[in-house]
Amino acid sequence: MPSKDQYLGCILGLALGDAMGAPYEGGILEQLIWKLIGRTKDGLPRWTDDTQMSIDIAMSLLDNGELNQLDLSTRFANSYKWSRGYGPGTARLLKRIGKGEPWQKASMAIFKNGSFGNGAAMRASILALYFNDNIDRLLSETKRSAEITHSHPLAIEGAILIALTTHLIINHVTIDDIINTLKEHCKSKEFGTQLKIIHAWLSSNHTPSPKEIAKTLGNGMTAQSSVMSSICIAFLHFDKSFSELLSFARSCKGDVDTISAMAGTLWGARNGATTIYSIPIEQRQELEQIAVNLFNQVNYPSPA
Ligand code: R7I
Ligand code: MG
Ligand code: MG
Ligand code: MG
């Protein structure tokens, strides 16, 4: 059975990965901008769109008692702020929804087949915290949460892989068994090939360097160049500290906030929040309350 500490770890790992990774995301210009806007008035590290959209999903689920796509699309649009560093396509899409365009139309308006950015995967661990009793339901609800902004099959598959991995981790499944289950759910050649590489590395006890991960699995803003990298980084750091995970993800360069958020949420799902409580972050109490509310709605029996 998952513990409340794992729920806290999953949410705080995501937000801390995001906020700690954000100063290193992208090129010189993006890093300069983040230097100017990366702290709250009280000097706390700010998180970005990765955490904001995760909060939107959590609040929508908790308030509606189900995944309501119209409600979620409205929340995404209402929360949009340029200073959270949204992906370029998602920023345009959310502005269209904000002006009243239905999400079904907006989500196809920017990229011809819908976005394959990692913006659906980065927020997908929340689904695993809410839909813990049935894997098929988890997968179909994850797809519904993703397609509001990311209707491309690779973006949806990336979201499903993160949700499923989170689900298996909070339910104490071993890395070997997680990999076997992920293999059953990899539909695309892209993710399937990457998973085989991770499997081969782990079975031969090879520890890839950050450079090797970036080159082989990717470090970009697309789902297919960041989801498997993040899963791999999380697996490599399950028995190491959160700060080692962060510094490894930073060395991978590229989309550091999102890779750290996805690796961080998986690390926290496994290790809980105890060792990361003291790291300062924007709105920590609100984040913790969300984790507790998600945990409480699942109705896990209390320990004897
Ligand atoms: O996926 P998305 O919300 O971006 C999330 C990223 C994370 O790093 C966040 O931290 C934030 O910084 O942004 O935003 P999108 O713009 O939908 O997708 C991200 C990028 O993937 C796009 O800007 C494109 O460069 C690329 N991309 C595509 N390129 C060509 N054709 C996504 N879909 C396509 C496509 O269909
Ligand atoms: Mg971001
Ligand atoms: Mg950005
Ligand atoms: Mg990012």
Structural class label: mainly alpha
In the CATH hierarchy, what is the architecture at level 2?
Orthogonal Bundle
Strand content: under 5%
Q: Cofactors and ligands present?
A: inosine diphosphate ribose, magnesium ion
Let me know the number of strands: 0
CATH class: Mainly Alpha
Unreliable segments of 5+ consecutive residues: none
Query: What is the third-level CATH name, the topology?
Result: ADP-ribosylglycohydrolase fold
> Between the first and last Cα atoms, what is the distance in angstroms?
13 Å
Please give the structural blueprint.
Elements: H1 4-21, H2 28-37, H3 49-64, H4 69-79, H5 88-98, H6 103-106, H7 125-130, H8 135-146, H9 153-170, H10 175-185, H11 189-203, H12 210-216, H13 227-237, H14 242-251, H15 256-271, H16 284-297
Helix pairs in contact: 1-14, 1-15, 1-16, 3-4, 3-16, 4-5, 8-9, 9-10, 9-15, 10-11, 13-14, 13-15, 14-15
The structure holds inosine diphosphate ribose and magnesium ion (3 copies).
Inosine diphosphate ribose binds next to helix 3, helix 5 and helix 15.
Keywords: Hydrolase, Magnesium, Metal-binding
Binding site for Mg(2+): 48-50, 255, 257-258
GO molecular function, one term: hydrolase activity
Structure description:
Keywords: Hydrolase, Magnesium, Metal-binding. GO terms for molecular function: hydrolase activity; metal ion binding. Mg(2+) binds at residues 48-50, 255, 257-258. Belongs to the ADP-ribosylglycohydrolase family. Its cofactor is Mg(2+). The protein has 16 helices and no strands. The protein has 304 residues and is an all-alpha fold. The protein has a single domain (4-297), classed as Orthogonal Bundle (ADP-ribosylglycohydrolase fold). Helix 1 (4-21) packs parallel to helix 14 (242-251), helix 1 (4-21) packs antiparallel against helix 16 and helix 13 (227-237) runs antiparallel to helix 14 (242-251). It is globular. The mean pLDDT is 97. The chain binds inosine diphosphate ribose and magnesium ion (3 copies).
